[in-house]
Amino acid sequence: MTITDIEAFAVRAPLGGADDEPHWGAGFWDRDDPERHPALPDGHAGTIRTEYPPMWRFRAVYPDALEAVVVRLETDTGLVGWGDGHTPAAPEATVAVIDHLLADVALGRDPLDIQPIWEEMYAAMRLRGHTAGFLMEAISAIDIALWDVAGKALDVPVAKLLGGVFRERVPVYASSLPRVQVSGGDEAIGELAERAARLVEDEGHRAVKVKLGLDLDHDRRVLRALREAVGPDVNLPIDVNGAYDVAGAERAARMMEEEGAQWIEEPLVPEDRRGYVRLNRKLGLAVAAGECLCNRWAFNDWLAEGALDLVQPDVSRAGGLSESKRISDLADSHGVPFAPHVSIGTAIYLAASLQWAAAGPNLMVCEWPLERGALGNDLIETPFRFSDGYVPLPEGPGLGIEIDEDALRRWAA
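Request: output the structure for the sequence above.
Response:
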């Protein structure tokens, strides 16, 4: 069996759920929001702030659509594997990396030679320092497609090939309740609490993540409202997207622990590994991070120094299923659980995350996006099923899903 074709293409679809609510990122990354993004320090007017890092340094580029890179990998036997490279901005760059660099590494190879192909793809640019970003997203997409083909060829789910199925149902948490601005006051907090109550009472979620990180007093009020809305038995992990310095993160984490949070995610910028080590030594609340770490060597340094209590690699950013499994096994050797990071993307991305989660002995929980956009259940023959805090592992071979290719290609960019 040999690989005869690798096609990469970008997809772009509207953000938001069935009720057309905007994706949380549309508000979080809004450059016109003065609370999140004060004026740049180049002569513009703006409130003097003392926090480090200053908030204007968080102006990440975030599109107003769901964007991803899909790989369709075909073999001479007619088997087709699908992969997803999580590229929420400029997906054309990842497509170019695949077309002009990585496709030649894999074409003509046996698709079951997954690790040799992975190592050669990574080696292609390692001497130039390309250890994250577009290259790793491109590698991720091809790697996921290889595992999909392998599972189909052997008529088993990918989780079996990753070492075995530890669980037929994957525990998931709802992600994410949006950040509410201080200016929204009690009304905005009340609306958020009502939404959380619906997730628990109507849909059966047992864990709900919320975005915080603007103001400690405001965030405390939000947490208290959420706890009252969801009751004592629902976990409330917190994501702040690098909003603090070490001192601020310590104050925030102690408040969050008092209010019953499950973990604090990305309290510092991802470059500040030493800061994470200092912070984690001071806290009782679990410190989580990892979506910005994209290979086993990066995670090894963080784990060896005791920087994290929970690792959150992203299967479509950290080198696919191959590297993600290596990372979670590495974390296990340090006594640290993993929780797959799952952001906006396609059903392929979700399925790959479930297969990896099912095969991990040290799984804590898997992220499960609230968005029900056009690239989710609408793309697969048998929709994902959520019930009482769990998503069953798809039953088919490979990733366990059957892609409706016509539906997918309607969103090709």
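The mean pLDDT is 91.
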